[in-house]
Each structure stands twice: as C-alpha cells, then as structure tokens.
C-alpha cells in the first residue's frame, strides 16, 4: 500500500465556526479536505457556540500556547429564570423561577461584581480531565465529582438589549474562562438562575471573526485558495 502524501502548509486560518460543530470537527475537516500533515486550534468552542476558531497549520501549531493565552471577546444571550444541567440551552431544565421586573441597570450592577480577578468552578460538562477522564463523560453518566476553582480575569461584562427573560452581553476575558458558567453565576447571584441560549466568539487576541470564512466556503476551496486565505507564519513566528 503506497504511503499517503501530505501537503505541508504553515500558517493561521480564521474560521467562523457554525453551531452544532465541535472544534475538532472543524479541524478534522480542514486536515482531511486539504490532506494536511499537522493541524490544531486555539481554544475550544462548545458545539452550540459559533464564531472565531483560530486554526493552526503545520509549524504554526508551535504557537498554540502563545495564542491561546491571549484575551478573548464573546457576545451572546443569557436567559434568566431557568437553570439547566449544562449551563446552556443544550441541557435539561432543572429549575424555573418567576422573574422580578429587573431593569438593565440592576442587572448591570450585579454583572459588575464579576469584573477583575475571580475564581470559577469548571462545569461538569467540560473537557477538563480528572484522573484521565473528561468531566463531560462523567456528567453523561450522571456522576458529579469535586472540582477545584480556577482563577480567571473578566475585563468586561456588559449587558444590553434587555427583553426579559433574555439579556444580551459582551464579555472580554482571560483564557480558560467559561462564559456559560459566568452566565449561570450571574443568575445564581441574582437568585433567579440563568443559562446561555447563544454564544459567539468575536475575537481571540488580534484575530477577529469579521471576514473569516465559513465551513461551506472552505469546502469549496482548493489548496491554492487555502494558501491565499491563511496568515503566513513568518511575521508572527
């Protein structure tokens, strides 16, 4: 059986990830479609989330830790008054509460208490491993294990467009921040519970989602078109 030939391309590709795709799905499609030898990405997006996924090709994978450490920006929508098992719309509703007539100012004052250095308890539905087992696999079995809080930094948590029970948000934060946990924690502090019904990554470091190709566009590319759309490695190495 002849040895498979791979294409060796080095650079960074911004992708606008669609909902219902995992970050691995996106990277896997790109690797297979263009027969690339090495690929990676900078920061997992939940399947329900959309937006910027920074995909690394070839030698650019060496920059993964450096690029993942950069600040992220997200937008989305929080639904107040309902808690779910996953802290987002993909989970089962565990509690529903009637909402008082919140004003945007009242909600923003509570959101402001999360600014700065805080500690977050990673959700059970996450890829963090304990004893070699991803938490989400344990969660699917109905198991809950002790997790240690992790330090994160919230530079911005701005609420807008209140239409109860929903409110939109913009968050700027450090790597490792769980935005759905931030939304759930906001609901907990308000006393009404909350979960995310939409999440979109707008920016990671200097890379933005504006102008990033979709999966459907990438599927239509040949190798030459891919090379036209990647950020070359030399200026950033």
Write up this protein.
The structure is a single chain. This protein has about 240 residues and is of the alpha+beta class. It has two domains: about 90 residues, Pseudouridine synthase, CATH 3.30.2350; about 130 residues, 2-Layer Sandwich (Pseudouridine synthase). It is about 25% helix and about 35% strand. It is built from seven helices and 14 strands. Strands 1, 2, 3, 4, 7, 10, 11, 12, 13 and 14 form a ten-stranded mixed sheet that branches. Strands 5-6 form a two-stranded antiparallel sheet.
Features:
two-stranded antiparallel ribbon; 237 residues; Pseudouridine synthase; 2 domains; 23% helix; 10-stranded mixed beta sheet; elongated; alpha+beta
Give me the secondary-structure topology.
Blueprint: E1 11-17, H1 23-33, E2 39-41, E3 50-57, H2 64-68, E4 72-80, E5 82-84, E6 93-96, H3 104-111, E7 116-120, E8 129-130, E9 133-134, H4 135-140, E10 150-163, E11 166-173, H5 179-190, E12 194-204, E13 207-208, H6 215-219, H7 223-229, E14 231-232
Parallel strand pairs: 3-12
Antiparallel strand pairs: 1-3, 1-14, 2-3, 4-11, 4-12, 5-6, 7-10, 8-9, 10-11, 12-13
């Amino acid at each position: 059986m002849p040895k498979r030939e791979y294409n060796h391309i080095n650079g960074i590709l911004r992708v606008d990830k669609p909902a219902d795709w995992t970050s691995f799905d996106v990277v896997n499609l790109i690797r297979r479609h263009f027969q690339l030898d090495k690929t990676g990405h900078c920061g997992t997006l939940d399947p329900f989330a959309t937006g910027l996924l920074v995909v690394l090709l070839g030698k650019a994978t060496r920059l993964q830790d450096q690029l993942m450490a950069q600040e992220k920006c997200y937008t989305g929508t929080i639904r107040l008054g309902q808690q779910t098992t996953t802290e987002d719309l993909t989970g089962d509703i565990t509690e529903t509460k009637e909402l008082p007539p919140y004003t945007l100012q009242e909600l923003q004052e509570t959101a402001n208490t999360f600014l700065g250095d805080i500690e977050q308890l990673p959700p059970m539905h996450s890829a963090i491993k304990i004893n070699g087992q991803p938490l989400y696999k344990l969660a699917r079995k109905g198991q809950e294990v002790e997790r240690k809080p992790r330090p994160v930094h919230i530079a911005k948590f701005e609420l807008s467009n209140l239409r109860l029970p929903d409110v939109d948000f913009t968050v700027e934060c450090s790597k490792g921040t769980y935005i759905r946990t931030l939304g759930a924690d906001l609901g907990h502090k308000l006393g009404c519970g909350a979960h995310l019904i939409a999440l979109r990554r707008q920016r990671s470091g200097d890379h933005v989602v504006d102008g990033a190709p979709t999966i459907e566009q990438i599927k239509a590319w040949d190798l030459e078109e891919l090379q036209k759309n990647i950020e070359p490695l030399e200026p950033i190495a």
